[in-house]
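Troubleshooting: if your tokenizer reports a length mismatch, compare your output against this known-good record of 241 residues.
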Amino acid sequence: LFRTAEERSNDFDYTISVSMLEIYNAKIRDLLSKNKNSLSIRIGDTGALEIPGLLSFSVNTLQEVQEVLERGRLNRASTATDLNDHSSRSHAIVRVHVLAVNRTTGAVSESRLNLVDLAGSERVSQSGATGQQLKEAQFINRSLSELGNVVNALRQRQQHIPFRNCQLTHGESKTLLIVQLAPDMSAIQETVSSLIFADKVSKVQTRNMNGKNLQLGYSSLSTPSGSTRLRISNNFAGILW
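Known-good structure output:
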């Protein structure tokens, strides 16, 4: 983004800003604010999803982006379980907003990129979650289940798609889904579940703005650690914001 902004600086003035939030126990919290009050989602005048009160920081370098992300990471809800010393208890979302103003015509263009780190589904019998941790696990599993319901509805071409059943699935967007698989045999159940979900997503067929059918595709990506990532993309998936 910064390289493109620099290359086009003679024709456009770019403003790039970053915000970071989490969905914790079905509530939206600003990870860059000291105020932990729950925020709400609304549809703006342009039809885009908006979160009033969400802080946004202007950034000009990759270093500034990393500083914002680190601040948000430190505020994200996490705890130790029997399976993970730093288990995420929320879905985290990094929102990148790009505003471009044409220096000649004054025309304004806006784009939004949302990077979503989903909390993993949790088998309570294995994680040993009790009390508050159990409540968190239930909210995580419920929201992931709602995501699965949206995928199933899209795959079956149902007339009603339950986007608004939870905060995680609000809105429509171009979507890229990356499924990361652990190489350990101890995680075989989670690996199989993730692959089943990925297979369902790969069968989703939607229509673009011109009414043309689009089919999801996927590819396998190898990583130095030996784990495998399954990348699934679509020009107009309409699953995550």
